Q: What sequence folds into this?
């Protein structure tokens, strides 16, 4: 009898604890109103496309000792950068130059095998006059393959005309 009483008390406690976690009407209302995305928010690529960006982005060959610059318009809020090799060492420098005063963010990249361990990152680039500069710091025997694609685009920002987003120089 004591055993069946303890089982009933345990079952009652379980029902009470489960019902206390059920969302109330007020909670459902708040969740429904915050699920909407504001009209002026930047457009972010779909997660499945972000995951495949490394494979689908067009790569450009950057020979050893070469510098490439890629300017982009104001409406590009962040940029996806990927660098790989054909199994050779990867020595590179990635720079984000911002504005006329040339505020610079620099990353030195090194990996022994750029095919097995490639490099990729997302750089925040809000503001005017942004340029990505990729420098292959290795010798000419070790080319790298670099891809730079817009990652986050604000359609309401200036500079979003019908022109292509970014071009290799």
A:
């Amino acid at each position: 009898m004591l055993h069946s009483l303890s089982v009933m008390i345990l079952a009652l406690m379980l029902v009470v604890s489960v019902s206390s976690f059920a969302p109330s009407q007020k909670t459902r209302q708040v969740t429904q109103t915050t699920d909407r995305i504001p009209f002026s928010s930047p457009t972010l690529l779909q997660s499945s496309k972000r995951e495949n960006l490394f494979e689908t982005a067009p790569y450009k060959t950057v020979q050893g000792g070469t510098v490439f610059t890629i300017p982009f318009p104001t409406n590009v809020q962040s940029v996806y950068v990927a660098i790989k090799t054909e199994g050779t060492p990867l020595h590179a420098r990635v720079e984000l130059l911002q504005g006329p005063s040339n505020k610079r963010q620099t990353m030195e990249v090194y990996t022994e095998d750029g095919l097995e361990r490639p490099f990729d990152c997302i750089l925040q680039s809000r503001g005017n006059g942004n340029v990505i500069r990729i420098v292959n710091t290795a010798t000419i025997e070790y080319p790298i393959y670099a891809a730079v694609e817009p990652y986050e685009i604000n359609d309401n920002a200036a500079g979003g005309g019908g022109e292509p987003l970014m071009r290799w120089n």
In short: Residues 79 and 150 are 5 Å apart (CA to CA).
